[in-house]
Design a protein that fits this description.
Largest sheet: 8 strands, mixed
Oligomer: single chain
Radius of gyration: 22 Å
Strand order of the largest sheet: 4-3-5-1-6-7-2-8
CATH superfamily: Alkaline Phosphatase, subunit A
Bound molecules: zinc ion
Number of helices: 14
Helix content: 25-40%
CATH architecture: 3-Layer(aba) Sandwich
CATH class: Alpha Beta
Number of strands: 8
Structural class: alpha/beta
CATH topology: Alkaline Phosphatase, subunit A
């Protein structure tokens, strides 16, 4: 940009004709800018959000979280339930309840594996669950666009703050070498920060760093990963008193984040916090996707333009509360899934869905009741398709 401005200025000064051309060009730019504002204003009004903080609480067992909420030991989780759009009966990916596959689903909107009965649906096929070597990426079978691509290619700033070193696969997949070419650059994640602490700090340093940097740089889209519950669950079991303490500790992180979003003049009133989990957990672990405690996760949203209430009630035309069932992608009534949240974040920012995604590809997951004027505005502000849950590519 700087280079263009300098050379343009030189031409303007060199000759009268060039000067006039530059004036016309400037006028043209002004017209384009006005037209663009006119075009995009409804989208901005529709979402109301300029910033989305997308949180994943690794290994969060929702029943244990809810018992802490009910015991008034998790006031910030409770705040999502008292003020936000929420469910504690969302679902993970159908075939996997493992950290990297499920986070890949969240940021790409793709299932891990080809869903039975849906041959046209792209899947991400990432089943590894450890830090990768240099140069290894998600794109082993072809480029997989992510939430970071859409946000960054639209000129929004992006960040990922992670608390396990295995997240390096995301940093590497969307870096200046491996990200897709675009005028806004190949590196889709403007800021990647990872600190892989064990006890007693776990994600505390990551959260402190996130709060500090977000207050300065105001990233439009941030993914924030919190490891504490999963790490304690593996070491000392889901449901142990130490596990409950870990969830209580995460509640404290959420308090820091609410504090930031409400005290920072730039973020206040323009931010949505989305919270979900990659998977739950039960003794002895979480890898088996057949168990309810493993495949059940929360989806919470709070902030600008978000109503208070049950997410299934807000989405009764497009989603179905699965009860206790493990629901595959071909089922007629799709549950709300953690995989919906990437495309939800983009919709909140007034951006289109992730190319090649299928989960919430129609961006029809709502965080307001249809009767709410804000919800209606959101509905009409963007040109949305209306098909629930998963969508086959045309
Ligand atoms: Zn784990």
């Amino acid at each position: 940009m700087k280079g263009e401005t300098v050379s343009g200025g030189m031409n303007c000064l060199s000759r009268l004709v060039a000067y006039l051309a530059c004036r016309w060009s400037a006028l043209g730019r002004a017209v384009v800018t006005i037209a663009a504002v006119g075009l995009f204003a409804p989208l901005i009004l529709a979402s109301g959000a300029e910033y989305v903080v997308h949180i994943s609480v690794d290994g969060l067992n929702v029943n244990i979280m809810q018992s802490l909420v009910d015991a008034e030991q998790a006031p910030n989780f409770k705040r999502f339930e008292d003020e936000g759009a929420w469910t504690i009966n969302a679902r993970t990916d159908y075939t996997h309840t493992v950290t990297l596959p499920n986070h890949t689903t969240m940021i790409t909107g793709r299932p891990t594996l080809a869903p039975a009965g849906l041959p046209q649906v792209a899947f991400h096929n990432w089943m590894e669950n450890k830090a990768v070597q240099n140069r290894v990426t998600l794109h082993k079978d072809g480029y997989i666009p992510s939430v970071f691509d859409v946000a960054h290619d639209a000129g929004r700033s992006t960040a990922m703050f992670a608390s396990k070193d295995k997240f390096n696969v995301f940093d590497q997949s969307y870096d200046e070498t491996n990200g897709a070419a675009n005028p806004h650059g190949r590196d889709k994640i403007d800021r990647y920060f990872m600190q892989n602490d064990g006890p007693p700090r776990y994600s505390q340093s990551v959260v402190d760093r996130f709060v500090e940097e977000m207050g300065v740089r105001h990233f439009n889209y941030v993914f924030l990963h919190l490891r504490d519950a999963d790490s304690v669950g593996h070491a000392l079991q889901w449901g142990s008193s130490t596990y409950r303490q870990a969830v209580h500790g995460i509640d404290g992180y959420l308090g820091q984040i609410f504090q930031l979003v409400e005290s920072d003049a730039q973020l206040k009133g323009k931010t949505v916090i989305i919270l979900t989990a990659d998977h739950g957990g039960r003794p002895p672990g979480h890898d088996d996707p057949i168990y309810r405690e493993n495949y059940t996760v929360p989806v919470f949203a709070w902030g600008a333009g978000v109503d208070h209430g049950d997410l299934y009630a807000m989405n009764e035309k497009s989603r179905k509360d699965p009860g206790d069932a493990r629901v595959d992608y071909a089922a007629a009534g799709q549950p709300i899934r953690n995989g919906d949240t990437g495309n939800l974040a983009l919709w909140l920012l007034g951006l289109e869905a992730i190319p090649t995604s299928s989960i919430n590809a129609a961006q029809d997951l709502r965080v307001a009741f249809p009767s709410n004027p804000k919800g209606l505005e959101a509905e009409s502000g963007a040109n949305r398709k209306h098909a629930g849950g998963i969508q086959e590519a045309n």
